[in-house]
Design a protein that fits this description.
Elements: E1 4-11, H1 20-37, E2 41-48, E3 52-59, H2 62-72, E4 78-81
Antiparallel strand pairs: 1-3, 1-4, 2-3
Helix pairs in contact: 1-2
C-alpha cells in the first residue's frame, strides 16, 4: 500500500517558545505512538511557529493521523492531503 502525503496543522499555544528539551520530549512521545501504530504512518518533518506546528506526514489515510493525534495528545487541528508538489525547478521541467 502506498502512503499519501499530508500536512497537519496543530494549534499548540506558545510552542514557538518551547526549549530544546521540551521539543525533544514531544518528538519522543510522537515517535512512541508512531511505533505503536506501525508502518501505515510516518512522520517526515515539522515546522514550529509561534502557536502552531505544521507537520508533514505520510499515511494510509486521515483516520490514522487522527488516531495518532488522539493517542499522543497533539491536536490535529487541520489535516490537508497533498495532491501535487511544485518547487523552483518546476518551471524548467
Amino acid at each position: 500500500m502506498s502512503l499519501q502525503k499530508f500536512i497537519i496543522e496543530r494549534d499548540i499555544p506558545k510552542v514557538g517558545t518551547f526549549e530544546r528539551d521540551q521539543l525533544r520530549g514531544a518528538a519522543a512521545k510522537s515517535n512512541e505512538v508512531l511505533r505503536r501504530l506501525g508502518p501505515d504512518i510516518q512522520w517526515v518533518e515539522s515546522y514550529v511557529a509561534d502557536d502552531k506546528t505544521f507537520c508533514v506526514y505520510l499515511a494510509k489515510d486521515e483516520a490514522i493521523i487522527r488516531e495518532h493525534a488522539a493517542i499522543s495528545g497533539f491536536p490535529a487541528t487541520k489535516i490537508t492531503a497533498v495532491n501535487k508538489m511544485i518547487d523552483p525547478t518546476t518551471e524548467a521541467a
